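User: We ran a pulldown and think these components assemble together. Before we commit to crystallization trials, I'd like a predicted model of the whole complex to look at. Sequences follow.
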Amino acid sequence: MARPRKSTPIRVLIAKPGLDGHDRGAKVVARALRDAGFEVIYAGLRQTPEEIVRAALEEDVDLIGLSILSGAHMALFPRVLTLLKKEKAGGIPVFAGGIIPDEDARRLKKAGIRAIFGPGTSLEEIVTTAQRLARSAA
Amino acid sequence: MKRDVPVPPAARAILRGDRRALARVISQIEDRDPAVAPVTRALYSHAGHPPIVGVTGPLGVGKSSLINLIVARLREGGRTVAIVAVDPSSPYSGGSVLGDRIRFDRRHDDSGVFFRSMASRGEVGGLAAATREVARVLGAAGFDVVLVETVGSGQVDIAVRDVATTSIVVVVPHLGDEVQTLKAGLFEIADIFCVNKSDLPGTELARRDLTELVGMGRNRSGWAARVVSTSTLADPPVGIDELWSAVEAHERFLDEAGRRTTEERRRLAAEIIELVREKVGRELSERLEHDRELRALLEDVVERRIDPRSAADRLERSLPRRR
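Assistant: Here's a predicted model for the assembly, 461 residues in total across the polymer chains.
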């Protein structure tokens, strides 16, 4: 469904799947996106893939950002993508950040995660990528 | 493209209980997308009259935690509930962080609950109109109760009165000056005062203070606000039943002697005026930007050849008369 998105803010869900409690990164990214004019729905810690997808649909977001440092990304990220497809919402771009080995990152990208940011990525790069992903989906 | 279909597909989907369609239409309302008009028009007669309960109060008093417990209580009673949580947009970037979902319990992950965050996007009057439209769409989607959470600062407080059928103002003990500043508009806003964090010392004092204040009068509809204290932290939580009973008492009060209609009429009048104001305002600012004659008028004001009020009169006269 086409929506006039030019003048309206991009809505993004930032969520942390998995059981680690390290949410500093997610919060810093949330804040950077806010400062770039995004409406950030911050879902917080320990979200199941089901909860993440449900939040994304209820909030009608343009974009989903996942942060994980527990190492469970290979199980949880594909699950989010599968659930989104099941809900016919596979068009919502998903990006991710955290501690994700290069080999895993390659496989996750193949599975449909649109961008993966490791430690040391500049906020500017994250913001620009998020803007580009949201625009490509609109 | 068919333009004159009586019930647009999106409206039909919402009436069927399609959550995705509901979420999208809410976005369109937020975006002030004119394309949503046929949908909200078709849904209007289906909106029903669910209680719309506003929860407002200063930052950090526990509004989200209270809402979480109210939802649990309503679900235990088998009632469906939609939550609209409004957070401010940054006046600088236009962005916002909407964090009210964090407090939301995963127990509520069932189809009887719908949670939506909204950014204020900087327009207080327009926000009230949009929130009311969203609440009606939620009513049409079949929710028994709609909860609206707003950050209670300044004008947003007043806006909640334009949206909610029952307004809860949440405070905590030792709020001191905060309560003092709230007092000015308190009678206009609160149907119920909730002193949250009653596990803290000073609760009795705050309660007494508010009860005294309430004893001084009734609000416009003749209701004397109730004072309830709660603790969301206690295990089990304290006062939630009492709080919800107060909401129900106020809703019953509205049903007596046609007060609900009187109140609704007042809100609808405000909403219609706000919608016209938004529309005309948009039209005028566009013309002021693009119309050469009106730009010259602005120059005249800048150069102090005429005053702003006279310019406004002229601008208003330039509006096309429609009938």
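Residues 11-137 of chain A form a domain with the Rossmann fold fold (CATH 3.40.50.280). That may be worth checking against your pulldown data before setting up trials.

User: Thanks, that helps.
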